């Protein structure tokens, strides 16, 4: 209540839910419209969009570029929002007068920031690496890193 009103919190939560829902609908519609000609077995833990595109028998270039552009805008917006939130949090924490209070606040924030950084870096590597670096074993390791470890 000190940093933001309930109304602002509700608006932000609604924006996250709405954008997540629209993003999911877009991916689901795109995935179900892809004709598969190489079977439907993936060497992954779940149906990852880049892995499904490898099974497609149609030219999936335009689909992939479209999804990548929309995803990039959404991810960039979320990333900026999170960075600005952390700047605000660290600004408030640095104003705490006691050393013990600052230490307690940082010990709460820094593990979350480390997990977020690990998730973002492995996610960026998984989706933006060149196809020449792609192998089933590496894709599986990267999937474990950004799904299980955080």
Automatic annotation (TrEMBL):
Coiled coil: none
Record InterPro entries: GPCR_Rhodpsn_7TM, Olfact_rcpt, Olfactory_GPCR
Keyword annotations from UniProtKB, A to Z: Cell membrane, G-protein coupled receptor, Membrane, Olfaction, Receptor, Sensory transduction, Transducer, Transmembrane, Transmembrane helix
Locations listed in the record: Cell membrane
UniProt KW Transcription regulation keyword: no
Gene Ontology CC: one annotated term: plasma membrane
GO molecular function: G protein-coupled receptor activity; olfactory receptor activity
Domain G-protein coupled receptors family 1 profile, residue spans: 1-150
Gene3D superfamilies reported in the protein's UniProt record: Rhodopsin 7-helix transmembrane proteins
Protein name: Olfactory receptor
Organism listed in the record: Apteryx australis
Gene name as annotated: OR
């Amino acid at each position: 209540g000190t940093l933001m009103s309930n109304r602002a919190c509700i608006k932000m939560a609604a924006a996250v839910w709405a954008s997540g829902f629209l993003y999911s609908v877009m991916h689901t519609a795109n995935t179900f419209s892809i004709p598969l000609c190489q079977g439907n077995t993936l060497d992954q833990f779940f149906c990852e969009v880049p892995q499904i595109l490898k099974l497609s028998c149609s030219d999936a270039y335009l689909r992939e570029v479209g999804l990548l552009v929309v995803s990039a805008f959404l991810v960039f917006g979320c990333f900026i929002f999170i960075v600005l939130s952390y700047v605000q949090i660290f600004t408030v924490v640095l104003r705490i007068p006691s050393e013990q209070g600052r230490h307690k606040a940082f010990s709460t924030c820094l593990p979350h920031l480390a997990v977020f950084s690990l998730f973002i870096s492995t996610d960026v590597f998984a989706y933006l690496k060149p196809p020449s670096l792609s192998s089933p074993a590496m894709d599986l390791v990267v999937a474990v890193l950004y799904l299980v470890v955080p």
